[in-house]
Design brief:
EC 2.7.13.3, Heat Shock Protein 90, 7 strands, transmembrane helix
């Protein structure tokens, strides 16, 4: 009987010892986790994660959950910082693009108040109206981009002839090509090119790309519609100044322009708007540069029948 009590007492003491050890390790883990959390939260540029001193399954599960939350918080911080930088850059670009033509127009308004010839008066008035139009275009494109990005503008998805829309849009820019002494080459298939889309949206895409080509292109304009498999690809190609891979990476970003001085009559929104509308119409848009030529390709699925 004494042996039984001795064994029972020993087992009980062993259990108590195990519980005490587990409790000690539990407290050590909790203190260690708390300390690590304080360090991680106070240091913003660290990639450290929580670790456990002793292996305890319930503590390890808790640490894994907290580490996942820490990763999410870090990713959110990175995203917020990126958005803040983009926002500041956007505001800077808008301010510059608005201030430059307004400042120029203001200078010519002052010159109009001086004693000048009729010829100079006509020249200055033309410049003022031109700068005023630049501001108008910027505000219209900015408003349009915001409406497109927010989903406020609704685009139809009906059967339309992409070739006909391209021809109509090219006709709108006949005088612009003529003024540059350029006659673009156009290569089109014989039959219609039926896609699912919105006529006005497609016309805006083509118009923005053509305007960009006229302003930035160096001539040798070539436009064509290719049918490959189950899609139509509309290709806009022109001679261009040298472009880097970075230019191509950012070419569709809002307010991006290769003209870092931002003195040309562009807002950096035209291709961004073209990309947004293309996406909403179910198409894809890509830009390439090769052997002195810049090329934009837009693809839409073919509508059978």
């Amino acid at each position: 009987m004494d042996n039984v009590w001795m064994i029972a007492t020993f087992v009980l003491l062993l259990i108590l010892l195990i519980i005490m050890i587990y409790h000690i390790y539990f407290r050590i883990n909790i203190k260690n986790i708390t300390k690590q959390l304080e360090e991680i939260m106070n240091i913003t540029d660290t990639n450290s994660l929580l670790t456990v001193v002793a292996k305890q399954s319930d503590i390890a599960d808790l640490v894994n959950i907290i580490n996942n939350m820490v990763r999410d918080i870090r990713q959110s911080r990175i995203q917020i910082n990126r958005l803040n930088r983009n926002f500041r850059k956007t505001i800077t670009n808008i301010s510059h693009d608005l201030r430059t033509p307004l400042t120029t127009a203001g200078g010519y308004v002052q010159m109009l108040q001086e004693s000048i010839t009729d010829e100079e008066r006509q020249e200055y008035t033309t410049i003022i109206l031109e700068r005023q139009n630049m501001v108008k275009i910027l505000l219209e494109q900015l408003f349009e981009y915001v409406r497109i990005e927010s989903g406020e503008i609704h685009y139809e998805h009906v059967s339309i002839d992409a070739k006909k829309v391209l021809i109509d849009t090219l006709t709108m820019y006949y005088d612009d090509f003529n003024n540059k002494g350029q006659e673009p080459t156009v290569q089109l298939p014989e039959g219609p090119c039926i896609i699912r889309g919105d006529e006005q949206g497609l016309k805006r895409i083509f118009s923005n790309i053509l305007f960009n080509a006229i302003v930035h292109g160096n001539g040798e304009y070539h436009f064509e519609v290719q049918e490959s498999g189950d899609c139509y690809t509309i290709v806009f190609s022109n001679g261009s100044e040298p472009m880097t891979s970075e230019d191509l990476d950012y070419i569709f970003d809002r307010f991006y322009t290769k003209d870092q001085s931002r003195n040309k009559k562009t807002t950096g929104l035209g291709l961004a708007i073209a990309k947004e509308i293309t996406k909403r119409l179910g198409g894809t848009i890509e830009a390439y540069y090769n052997n002195g030529r810049f090329q934009v390709e837009i693809s839409f699925p073919v509508v059978e029948g």
